Amino acid sequence: MAGTTMNRPLPPNVNAVPDRHGKIRYRYRRSGVTGGYLPGAPWSVEWLEKLAEFQGQEAAPKIRAVSPAKKLVPYSMDQLASLLRGTLRWKSQAADTQRVYGRMIDRLLDETNHKGIRFGARDARQITVASLEKLLARYADRPGAAKKMRDVLKRLFKTAVKHSWRRDNPAAETDAIPQRGDGHHTWTDAEIEQYRAKHAYGTTARLVLELALNTAARRCNLATLERSAIIDGHIAVDHVKDGEPTLVELTAEARLALEKRPSTHIRYLIANAYGKPYTKNGFGNRMKEWADAAGLPAGRTLHGLRKARSRQLAEAGATNAEGRAITGHKTDAMFNHYAAKANRTRLAGQAMAKLRGDISGGAE
Questions:
Q1: Are 257 and 215 a contacting pair, CB within 8 Å?
Q2: What are phi and psi of 187, to 5 degrees?
Q3: Distance from first CA to last CA of the chain, Å, rounded?
Q4: What is the pTM of this model?
């Protein structure tokens, strides 16, 4: 078949092409990059190496006609958002962070009131605390989204204060959004062992778990770890969100997981069937599938493994500085959260031991 070989579907952008002698060859073609024929037998090491080289190219940007800049009404929320996006702080954020918050701002500006007036068209100088409370009330059933939207509003009106549009920040005067629970479930040690029992060394599922625990990296960082990140028995992680790079010693479990899956011709430590890293969403979905296969309850995520490693570090007595050297957190706040929980558990155990001693002493 033209679209398959060795009973395997061909990777995207690879086509089987007969040459002038009738021999089937395999060619990589993708818009905006240099393509070519793949050498050797299909799925051989040299075939896959050349495929990875082709796939790793950045596509040249398409040239599009530039439309005239939209004219912004002076002092409108639309103009305020434009000013925020032009700040050094905004431009210094990671591209992924800019996309996430940029979409939130766009949704916010397109919100309409009972009169059908866009929020972006309103005069930023006239916005009141009460009107912002009403807007945030629309997110009452989504406290996480409400908190992020409040943060966006605070940043917008902080920009308004800097430009002397206003003297106050009305978003900062709105009520803080109470959060339900503790976010992503923190994996327990028993859950980690149950996952290990299902996924043996040599599987991608096991490699992901051990690298996630070893590095305490976020999903986006974990998915793009390269073989070059392993340096003298350590693994380097560039924590994108906090901008804090770390160099962590490889654990015995991570070493064994890497040894049992030695795909050294592939650039990435964790790769899909085509030798490419998982997308952010695809990676999360695969972790869900692996956790489900291990019989774990729903809600066991990669971020939950990051929290589990933070918990384990705190329980082992790591200081804030020691814990952050692994997790990449920029401030003490998050690691303090885990340390406080660990301390409460330890203190509760000591209290019960004392109570047992008191009871024994009184009976003698």
A1: no
A2: -60, 140
A3: 86
A4: 0.58
pLDDT at residue 2 greater than cutoff 80: no
Neighbour tally for 62: CB within 10 Å: 7
Whole-number Cα distances in Å, 174 to 77, 234, 336: 18, 46, 27
Alpha-carbon gap, residue 49 to 41, rounded angstroms: 12
Phi and psi angles of residue 200, each rounded to the nearest 5 degrees, phi first: -75, 165
Residue 326 amino acid letter: I
Query: Among residues 219, 338, 224, which one has the least CA distance to residue 283?
Result: 219
Alpha carbons within 13 angstroms on the beta-carbon side of residue 24 total 10
* CA 305 to each of CA 241, 253, 301, 312: distance values in angstroms, whole numbers, following the listed order: 17, 15, 7, 10
| Dist. CA 239–CA 328, nearest whole Å | 6
Question: Token pair 């998050």 is at which residue?
Answer: 334
Instruction: Count the Cβ atoms, other than its own, within 10 Å of residue 255.
Output: 16
Beta carbons within 10 angstroms of residue 143's beta carbon? 14
- Backbone conformation region of residue 183, classed left if phi is above 0, alpha if psi is from -120 to 50, else beta: left
34: its two tokens: 């240099």
Eight-state DSSP code of residue 262 = -
Q: Give 147-158 pLDDT, tens digit per residue.
A: 999 999 999 999
**Cα dihedral 154/158/160/166 (nearest 10):** 100
pLDDT tens for 75-102 read: 999 999 999 999 999 998 878 788 889 9
